[in-house]
Amino acid sequence: MRTVVSACLVALMFAFVAVAQKQKPWTEWTKKDVDKTLNDSAWGQTQTEGGSSSSQSTDSAVTQVAAPRSSDRQLSTRQGESGEGKPVSYVKYHVRFLSAKPVRAAFARLVLLSKTEPNEALTTQLQGFIDRDFSEYIVVSVGVEVGDQKMAGPIMQAFSGANAEALQKTVYLERKDGKKLFLMDYRPPVEDGMGAKFVFKRVVDGQPFLSENDSVRFVAQMNEKMKLDTRYKLSNMLYDGKLEY
Q1: Which residues pair with 185 in a beta bridge?
Q2: Confidence (pLDDT) at 50
Q3: Rounded to two decimals, what is the model's pTM?
């Protein structure tokens, strides 16, 4: 009996820790928390092509495509700097639901982490960015990370040279029932470190296109050689007790 009670107490303790971590304010997130949210979470997935970056040395070249100016570098998800090592030929597409609060919170936290001293005015400003109203739109952002700087040019051109009209039939969200929601608008990368932005209507025929019971697939055929295809489960996209996408 004592063993059973002890096991229950341990289970409750771990459950409490998990809840506490989930509810941790964004202003207390670590860099690891930010990276997890942006690149490997319910709201952010990474599609990797080419050689594995996991085997690269710390001297390998890693470049964030369309990275911000040095003054805006706090919003970059850049992983390293060029060095003397041989570059690894890989591409990582970081596909995130920017219209979801935790993703905006992660970008906001990057800004604060870049500061040496607390700044209450900046924190308030960033909170406004996090709380921005996305009730009419779903926005998916795509950031690109390359292992070899030589690969950046053609990839950047594909994103910066695209427009909504050209992508309307090749970019869509697809529900588990097969129904597709095609692109409404497109914004090429700018110097904010968040990448290209794909905009969709949130409400179709008076009803949200997505619900908590859905899974959703983001597909973007940028050109003949570049296709993004990532999947998400909405039941996992809960933040502060609310569905966020």
Answers
A1: 199
A2: 83
A3: 0.79
